[in-house]
Each structure stands twice: as structure tokens, then as C-alpha cells.
Amino acid sequence: MLTxxxxxxxxxxxxxxxxxxxxxxxxxxxxFRAGETAVRQDTPIQVSLLLVEGFMTRHVxxxxxxxxxxAVHVPGDFVxxxxxxxxxxxxxxxxxxxxxxxxFTHESLEKILVDDAALAKRLWFITMLDAAQHRxxxxxxxxxxxxxxxxxxxxxxxxxxxxxxxxxxHGFTLPMTQSDIGEVCSxxxxxxxxxxxxxxxxxxxxxxSSQVQILDIQGLVxxxxxxxxxxxxxxxVASQAVGHNGDFHDR
Amino acid sequence: xxxxxxxxxxxxxxxxxxxxxxxxxxxxxxxxxxxMTPDAAAQTADSLHAAANExxxxxxxxxxxxxxxxPGA
Lengths: 251, 73
Fold this sequence. Notes:
The structure holds two protein chains of two kinds.
Chain A: H1 16-24, E1 28-32, E2 37-39, E3 47-53, E4 56-61, E5 67-73, H2 83-86, E6 92-95, E7 99-105, H3 106-115, H4 117-143, H5 146-163, E8 171-173, H6 178-185, H7 189-201, E9 205-208, E10 211-214, H8 217-223, H9 235-241
Antiparallel strand pairs in A: 1-7, 2-6, 3-7, 4-5, 4-6, 8-10, 9-10
Helix pairs in contact in A: 3-4, 5-7, 5-8, 5-9, 6-7
Chain B: E1 16-20, E2 23-27, E3 33-36, H1 38-59, H2 62-69
Antiparallel strand pairs in B: 1-2, 2-3
Helix pairs in contact in B: 1-2
């Protein structure tokens, strides 16, 4: 089921009927290669994409020539649901890895809006989740130190992947380079490298070959000042995300 | 009522600069996290030092106040 991960383990999950309805609204499945741009800024859009497999990013190409990652997407995320109302984006959406996406025409989303108020409310919830994460990213960049930023981002990614069942054996796949993490945290490569070394030496986590191994989730949460409330997880997963029960890493 | 808007007040804790692989990394205070070339770091340090002395003169405090009273101030 392509919609399996949508709002999985969130505070406002989809009912089986809603998930079925969403599934039937899928018009197509597409794939993009790592590095490919799936949605271009300022281009008229008639469809919205649900990430089924892989990682994607939202990024802004600034006038100074620098790319700024403003969101990282994991399976179950609608990467451009806001395009349903905006009809064009103020940022690009790119594939961080090889990805597959389910395609929803805006016509089909319009039909859900008209015919199924409960499901429409869930879709609205998804865009509100986006906004909550963007607020948290602003907080992270404006108020946290370099180490806190990286720890916070790793905790956030861990929590989101926990929700969709992609955390295994104390760790998860994070197909991002140090440069990518630097773009997320507004840090240089050398700064990210130093922070990752510090986190490893503190016994909190290590990143090697795109694999994040969490050694001490509670310590990492404390280091990153991470509070998962803004992710609107269900209580069980929210507890796991901060290591408040012993089996945080296996689902 | 307690005012928790700490970011709106001057920090009393200092940032920490570290040399790594030919560049200078400055951490803190608060959300400061920048990497500079050695020249940029040295210029920033000079500028900070001068501004700190000037700020002390404003408050009539410390070595800045004394420097401010001397020739060329």
C-alpha cells in the first residue's frame, strides 16, 4: 500500500477507510534518481507528490548561489501538498536518494475536499505538520549552538523515521553528506565534522557510511534540547523518540 | 513575571573559538556558529576587542574607560 506511512503513528492518524480512499486517488507512481529535481520553483503544478520510498529535500537556491536545504522528507510525507493551493512553489523539491513517489492530481484532491471532509482535514493536518517543522527549524538555527543543532536534527530525523518504522537496531539510514547536514544546520563542513566527532566522543551517536548509530538517545535528546511535541506523534512513539522506554530503537 | 526572553538581553557568556584544519570555528554564545578563515577571524577578534573597549567606555568601566581617557581616544 503506497499510502501506508501517511500520518502513521501521528496524533491524528488516518482511519483504514481514509487510507483506502487516499490510495484510490493515486493517479500514477513515478521515480526520480538521486540528485534529480522533482518539482521546480515558480513552475505551474497540477499534481502533488507523496514520497513512498527514499529521501527528498526542499531547497532554496539563494541569490548568493548557495543552496539552502529547508526541509528533509522521509517516506509518508507529501512533499508538495501545499502546491494544491499555491499552484506553484517558492522552492525546489529534489531527490536526495533514488525515490518513488505517488502522484495525486489536484483534481483528485479537489474531489476529496468536496466529498470527504474528514480526509480533507487530515490533509490539512499534514500541511500544518510542515509548518510546525519549519517553525522548529527556525528555532534551531536562531537559538541553538552547532552541536545542539546537529543533535536536534538527528533526534528529529530519528523520531520521524521511528513513526514510519524505519529505525532498526539502534540506528537509521541518513543518506546525507556532511555538506547536506551543514546546509540543514547552517554550518560549514569542518564545523559539522567537528560536531559529529564531539557527539561520537560524548558517546551519543555516530554517523558512518550514511548510517546513524544512536548510542545514547536520552543523552542525544538532552544535547539537542529536543522536544518532539511539534511532530505530533502518538504518545507511544513520542516516548520512544526521547528514550523514555527501553525499546526505543526496535518497532 | 519572569522574563525568559534571554536572547533579547546581552549575553554574559563568551563564544569559544577553535582552530580546525586551517580555519577558525566560533561556537556561541547563543546561536552563533560560524567558520572563518584565519584572517577573517583575526579581523573579527580585533573588531570585537575594539568594540568591547568602546562599550566599556560607554559604561565607564574597566580598561576601556581608561583607554578612552588617554591620548588619541
